[in-house]
Amino acid sequence: MSLIRSFAALLCAAPAVAFALGDGGGRAAEILRLEVHPAAVRIACAADSVQLLVTGVRRDGLRVDLTREAKSPTPSTLVSVSERGLLRPQHDGDGVLQLAVGELTAEVPVHVENVAVPLNPSFVVDVQPILSRSGCSTGTCHGSANGKNGFKLSLRGYDPTFDHAALTDDHAGRRFNRAAPDKSLFLLKPTAAVPHEGGQVVEPDSVDYAVLRAWVQAGVALDLDAPRVERIELFPADPTVPDPGMSQQFAVLAHYTDGRVRDVTALAFVESGNIEVAEAAPGGLVRTLRRGDAPVLARFEGRYAATRLFVMGDRSGFQWRPLPQHNWIDELVDTNLQRIQAQPSDLCSDAEFLRRVHLDLTGLPPTRSATRTFLLDRRNSRSKREELIDRLIGSPEFVQHWTNRWADLLQVNSKFLGPDGARAMHEWLRGAVASNMPYDELVRALLTGSGSTLQNPPSAYFKVLREPDLVMESTTQLFLGIRFNCNKCHDHPFERWTQRQHWQTAAWFAQVRRNDAPGSPKMPASEVMQAGEQPPAFEELITDDGALSSEVMDPDGRRYANVLPFTHDGPTAPVLTLRQQLAQWLTAEANPYFATSYANRLWSYFMGVGLIEPVDDVRAGNPPSNPELLRRLTDTLVSSDFDVRALMRVICQSRVYQQSVSTNRWNVDDEVHFSHALPRRLTAETLYDAVHRATGARPRLAGVRRGTRASELVDAGVDAADGFLGLFGRPPRESVCECERSSGTSLGQALNLVNGPTLAQAIEDPDNDLAALVAHETDAQKIITELYLSFLCRPPTEAEIQQLIPMFDTGAPANAAALRPGDRATLETRLQAFEQQHREPEWTPIEVSQRTSDGGAELVPLPDLSLLVTGARPERDVTTVVAFTDKQRLTGIRLEVLADDSLPSRGPGRADNGNFVLRRFTVSAVPLAEPAAAQVLKFGSVTSDFAQEGFDPASMLTDSGRGWAVAGQLGRSHEAWFDCQDTTLHAGGTLLVFRLEQEYGGTHTLGRFRLSVTDFPHEIRHSGLPEAVAATLRVPPEQRTDEQRGTLFRHFLGTDGELRDKIRLGAAQDLAWALANSSAFLFNR
Amino acid sequence: MSVRRLAVVAALIGAASAQSVSPTAIGGATDDPVSYWREVRPLLQARCVGCHQPAKAKGGRVLVDHRSLLAASADGHAAMVVPGQPDASALVDSVTAHDGLPPAMPEKGAPLDTAEVELLRRWIAEGARDDSPAVEGPPVTMDSPPIYAQAPVLTSLAWSPDGKLLAVSGYHEVLLLDGVDRHLVARLVGLAERIESIAFAPDSAQLAVVGGSPARLGEVQVWDVATHTLKVSATATFDCLYGASWSPDGRLIAFGGGDKSVRAIDAHSGEQVLFSGAHDDWVLGTAFSKDGTHVVSVSRDRSMKLIQVATQQFIDDITSITPGVQKGGLMAVARHPARDELLIGGADGVPRLYRMFREQARKIGDDFNLLRAFAPLPGRVFAVAFSTDGERIAVGSSNNGNGEVRVFQTADGVELCRYVGKGGIFSVAFAPDGETLAAGGFSGEVLLLDSRSGAVRHQFVPMPLGPPSSALARIDQEQ
Prior knowledge:
A: seven-stranded antiparallel β-sheet, B: mainly beta
C-alpha cells in the first residue's frame, strides 16, 4: 500500500528526474534508471511466453523489482503484458515494447512469429510440464504412490512413458477422446468441467488448455526422442530486496539439448527455501516477509537452479565498524556481512574462548588448573589463544575426540562388526587421526580396503555396508555430501540425479566379494537381515572378483553397468579394480563435491552450522550461504594435500570463530552468516565427559573399565545405566547420516539433568573433587570459586559469590533442610536426643513463710514469689528463708538471681556494679510430723547458666571456695541449680529452711531472688545453653516460631561438626547441580 | 496491472483507499443480470463441485446443476439457494466469514474472494435464474449420428452368436456391421459417450451396451437388434460401466462399475436385481456361470470374485488372496462356452485359466483354482475370448503403443499364432465360425484376422469419416 501511495504522490508532483519509492518509514531512495531483462524478446510459437524483469537501480545502490509497476504507455500490438509482466504473443511482427515507471522509461525490442501456426505440441516438451505445473503429478495428487481416484502419474512426471500410458492406454483410452477432443476426460477434469476433487487446475481459456487440447487432437503421440532440458537458468542472480514486504519476480530459462532456449517461467516451479523470510507465489513471484536470506530454487522438468535472495530490511543508522581480521576467513565473512549490513560481534572473552576451543577440538572442557593458568597468563590474548590452539590440535584428547567422530560416520558398531572388529576399526581410525592421515588418503583406504576385516580394518567398510546400492548411497552421502537414496525408486525430486544413475553408480561396487575368513565363527543373526539370510562370520575377507558381474539389478530386474554420475577432468591412471577406479575418481582434487563437502562439514563442526546445511545434502537447491568462503575453504583443504589439522587451525584462529555469542542490534537476527557465535548444546559424549571432569568423579559406563570416558567408547552399544548418551542424542551408528546425532533439547533431557542418576552419581560420588574440596576448604567463597572454574571455566562474579554464600551458612534451617535424606534423618535423631538431654525440669517456686536478714535488710515478697531486698545495705549478710512444701520427693532446687531496675546497675546483687557473691547455700528439711528428723540436704552438683571466672557455683558447696558471682554478665538474671540426689521427704509436709551466706563484703549481697523446687526424675544440671536456646527448648516444639527454630538449629549444629560438613557438602553439591543445569554449562558458547 | 492503475487513479482523485474498491467494480459496473450459465456455474465448478457432486456428496450437498442448488438436500436440509434472499441462502452463508472465523467453505483451498461472493449474492438477489441453454435430448441422435474427423479408440466389439453381425463401439454409438461383407447395417446412437462393453444376448436378438460419460454418468442400454430400437436405458453410478455379460437364459445383464460395484439388471425392465460391493476397486469384467446361478467379476483390486445371483451374496475369491500372488489389476474375463472355467487377463500380462467352483477348502497361500497360466504377453492384457468350441483362446494386449493378439490352445497353452501391430489391442472376439478373429483398440480400426495364422484379412475404420462439422463440432462448442 505504501508503495502505491508514494507512487501516486509522485505522479501528482512536478516532473522529476528520478522516481522514489518509500518504505513507509520516511526513508525514500531515489531510482536512477530502469533495467529490463531480457534485452530483447523473441517469441516463436503461439504457446510461448516471456517473463519481463523490470528493475530499478536506486541511488543507494540497491535494486528494486518494478516489474509489476511498469506499464506500457502505448500498448504493443505484438504482445500482451500480464500484471506480472508475462508477455504472450498476439501478432507476428517486429517492434519495440515501451515501458515506463513514473518518469523513467525503457524499451525492449520484440520479435514475434508463428502466432497463426497451429500448435503441434510434444508430450515430453509441452504436455508434461503443464501436468507438473498444474500440480497433477505431485506427491499429494496423482503422483502419489497409489495415484488418486484410480489415476496415477509418475512423481513430478519423471517417467513420460508411464504417464503417457496412464493418459492414453488405461481403461482402453478412457482419458482422451480423439473423436471429440474437448470431451476428453484429460481436459474435462483439470478444468473442473466435470467434478474434480482437485478443483480447477487449468483454466478453460488458457494457453495451457489449448496446448493440451491440440495434443489430443493431433493423436496423443509420445515422442521420447524429443529434445530434453539440459539445464535451466534463474534470473536475477543473488537479488537483494531492500525491504520486507516487497516482492521479487524471477524468470526461468530452459536450455534444451537441441540448443533451443525457452522462457519457462510460466511452467517452472520457483520455491523459497526459507518460508520465514520469503514465500513463493505462482508464476515465479517471491514475496518477502522479513529480513534474512532465502535460497530460491527453480525446478523444471527434472532440472534445477538456485540462487539466494536477501531481504535487507530497515538498516537506517547502520554504519560498518571494521573489526580486526585475523585471516582470510574474516575477510570473506566481513565482505558478506558488509553486503547484508550486519555488524559482527566482538571477540569473546578469554574464558569463553578457552572453553569453546577445548570443547571443539578435544570434546572436553578445560580442567580447573588449565583455566587458571590461561586466565592468569598476562600475555597478549591473540598469541596465547593461538598457542592454545596449537597445543590442543594433536593432543591425546583431540585424537580421541576426532576418532569418535569418524567412528560415528563409519558405523563402528559391534552389531555390524563384532566386538573385535569394532575395536580394530576404532584402533585404525585412531591411528589415522593421530598421524593426521590426509583426508583423501583415508577415504581411499576405506573405499579400496581389501583382505581381512580384522587385519586390515578399513576393509570392514564393506563389512558394514553389504550391498552395492547401500555402499553407494553411504559413500556418496559421506564423501560427496549428496544423497543418492532419494533416487533409488524414482528420479531425485530435488536434484538432477536419476534413478538410472543410482544403479549405475552402485555398479562400481558390484564386484566386491565378502567371504567368511576360515575358522571365524558366524555372527549372531541381526534384525536387519532378510529372512533366510545367513549371517556373515565375525571376520571376513574382502576381495575384488573380476569374475563377478559388473552389473547390478534393480527390483524390477533391469540391469545396469557401472557409469559415473558425473565426470570431472581429474587424472585417470591405470588401475585394477572397479573400486580403485571409483576411489580415484571420487577423491580427485578435481571432483567438485569431494573436498567441498568435507570443508563444509569441518566448518560446521566448529561453527555449529555449515555453509551448506544439512552438511551432507549438497545440491543445487541448497546453495551455500557464503559461496566464496566455501570455495576458499575447499581450496585450502586441497592445496594442503587434505591436511585436516591445517584447516582446523585456520578456522580456530579466525576472528569469526572467536566471536562472542552476544549479539548487537545489527546481527541479532543472523543465524547463517557467522556474524556472531552460535551456542551449541554439548553433544552427548561431551556432556557426559564434562560432568565427570567438572565433578572429578570417575565415569561409570556399563561394561567398560571404570573411568572410561564416553568419547573413548569403541562401541555404540555402551551407555550409562540411565541411557544418558542415547537420551542426549549420541548417534546409534546405524547410518552414515550426520543427522543421526541429535543436538536438540527435550523434556526427557531436562528431567534427566534435574534429577537423573548420571549427574547424581557424579555429583554425590564420595570420591569426587567436591568432597575433597569441602573437606579441606571451609571458606565458602573459595569453594564457590572452585566450582565455577570447574563447571563454567570462569571465576564467579562478586555478585554471584554474595548470592551463593548463604547456601554455605550451616546454621540456616533451610540449608539443614537441604541435607540429603539420610543426613536429614541423622539430624533429626540427634536433635531429638539433644532436646531430650536439655529438657528443663518443671520448677515450682516456693511460697516463703518466714524470712530474715542478719544484716538488717528488708525482704519484700513480690507477686512472682521472688523476694526483693531493700532497706539497709549491709556489707555482708546471711539471709534465711523458710517455706512449706508437701512434696514427697525433692530432686533439685533452683536459685534465680534476678535483675531489677531498683538495684544498683540493675543487679542482680546490691554491690555498686550489680554483683553479689553467694559464699554458701544450705537447705535443711524439717518434717512437720517429726521435727527431730530434720536433715541438711546433700547436693550432688551445682551448675549455673553463668559464673564469673574464679567464682564457680560449685564452690558454694565447699569450705574453701570463694562462692558464686556473675561479674561479666551483670544487669541480667542468672540461675543456679542444685542437684539434690533424689531426696525423699516425709509425708505430712516439710519445712525447708534455706540459708544464703553472703560474706564477701562490699555490699556483695543478693538484690532480688527466687527459689523453686522440683521432683524432676533426672539429674538436675543447668545446660549452660544461651538463654534464647533455653527459652526455645521451654516452648513446646509445635509452638515455636521460625526464629526460635533457627536459634535452636544454629546452636545444635554448632555442636555437631559432622552434620555441619554434610551441610557444606550438600551446598557444594547443590551448586554443582545448578551449574550443571545452567545453559553456560550445557552449551558451548 | 489494473488494480494498481485503479489505485493510482483513486489516489489522484482523493478516494480513500485502493483496498476499498472491489475488484468487481474494476470489470466495469454493469446492469446486466448475473448469468448462471456463464458466471455462477463455472465458479461452482472450479471451487465447489469437486466435493459436492453426485459421486461424493459431502455434507449431503450436490452443487452440479441449477436444479440441485434449489432443491432441499437428501437428508432434509434447506436448499442451498433461496431465490431473492441471499442472506437466507446457505450457499452464501457457507462462503462468508463470520465473527472473525474464516468461511466454512471451501474446506480445502483459499476462501472465495469478495468479488466472487458478491457475484453469488447478486445472482441470488436477482432471483437465481437459470439461463442454461436448452438441451434437447442427447446432442447426437439416431437421426443425427456423429460425424468423425478421426476414428475414436475402439473399446469393444462383439459377434452376434449367429454370426450375422459384428457390433463395434463408436463415440455415442454402437455400429452394427454385416458379419460377412462388413457393410454398415445400423448405427445405434445413445446417451452414453463412451461405449465400454458390448454383448449380444444368447439368442442374438438383443444387444447389451454399457458405458457412460466419464466422471458423470453410467448407462446400460438394451437394443432390439432387428429393429435397431432402444428398449432399455438404465443409468447407474456417476461414471462409466464396464464388462457386460448376459445370463445364459437371456434374462439378466451383469456389469461392473467405477464405484466398485457389481450389478445386474433385468434385461426387460431395466430394474436392478443384483448388487455386490465386495470389491475394493473398479470392477471391469463379469461373466455368468453356465447355469446362470452365479456371476463372477474381475477388478482392478486384483481379484476375481464369485457371487450368487439369487442371494446377491459374495461366495468366494476365485483367485488367490495371498498378497503378491496377483501382480496387477484384472481387466477382462470370459467363460468357457461349455464349462465353468474362466479366462482372465490384466496388468501383469499373464492370461490365466481358473475353475469357477472350488473343489477343496482354501489354505492360506494357495491358488488352488488356477488351472493354467499362459505365456505372458508384453504389457497389459485388456481382452480375452474363447472360440465357440472352447478349444482356443484369444488374448489382446497393449504395451507402450504396440498391440498384440495371441491365440493359444486352451488345453495345453500352446501358442498357435500371433498378430503384432501399432496401437494397443483393447478388444478381441472370435467369429462363431471360428475362422475369423476380430480385434480392435487404440487405432480405432477393426482388424479381422485369420484365427489360424494371425494374418490380417481386413483392416478398416468402421465408421464413416468426414470433416469435423455438424454434430461433433456442435458438441465441442458447448464446452
